[in-house]
Amino acid sequence: EAGVVQSPRYKIIEKKQPVAFWCNPISGHNTLYWYLQNLGQGPELLIRYENEEAVDDSQLPKDRFSAERLKGVDSTLKIQPAELGDSAVYLCASSNAPYNEQFFGPGTRLTVL
Amino acid sequence: RKEVEQDPGPFNVPEGATVAFNCTYSNSASQSFFWYRQDCRKEPKLLMSVYSSGNEDGRFTAQLNRASQYISLLIRDSKLSDSATYLCAVNLRSKLSFGAGTTVTVRA
3-state DSSP call for residue A93? Predict the structure, then answer.
């Protein structure tokens, strides 16, 4: 069974530019998460989807970050405009229920110059 | 106080040794608990779910102590390949909060 797929794996952009990350969860997993991980820290939740609905976006900086999961399967996370402090690894995870184990994709390593 | 706290280590142990470390959580209403393993520049991979009775998977044993609000992970007969960062994760109302990780280095 295929795991969580993310692209791109690496992205280097200049500050103030837009960037987008894509995630395809494990087949059948209705719950999708976007996390941000800084070096030496654990992942921090940005947003959680149950099917198409964003049920927890309280940690998403809405002035510059947006996300969508239009058909309840794959999802896109966007940053516009990017700032230097956004450099981090953006991880997508999925689970078959909110309380159950989450499985992570390989992440997108973003560098903002 | 952070929701989930871990001793960052590093724990440097020789091959074959036993190593154990804890993770404390702040909210007593937390509902489910997990240990993840993360290798350098890789994604976290689920190691074990932690059940109320404790559970064992080969050389790995996880325990949950709700009264003192911590979970533990014990690795027996350490292998070089066990070198990694171990993240604990605590689920409260469908939100998973992670600790910053405990680094374990197993030396030959």
Answer: strand
Three-state DSSP at A80 gives coil
Question: How far apart are the C-alpha atoms of A20 and B4, rounded to whole Å?
Answer: 30
Quick one: which of B63, B70, B62, B88 has its CA closest to B28? B70
Give the DSSP H/E element, type plus range, for residue B62: strand B60-65
Distance from CA of A77 to the nearest CA of B (A): 18
Interface test with B, best of A7, A60, A101 (most B CBs within 10 A): A101
Closest Cβ opposite residue B95 in set A45, A101, A109: A45
CB within 8 Å: B44 and A104:
yes
Residue A56: list chain B partners with CB under 8 A. 94-95
Q: What is the pLDDT of residues A52-110, one digit of tens each?
A: 999 999 999 999 999 999 888 999 999 999 999 999 999 999 999 877 889 999 999 99
Task: State how far the Cα of A38 lies from the Cα of A88, in Å rounded to an integer.
Answer: 5
Counting every residue written for chain B, the total comes to 108
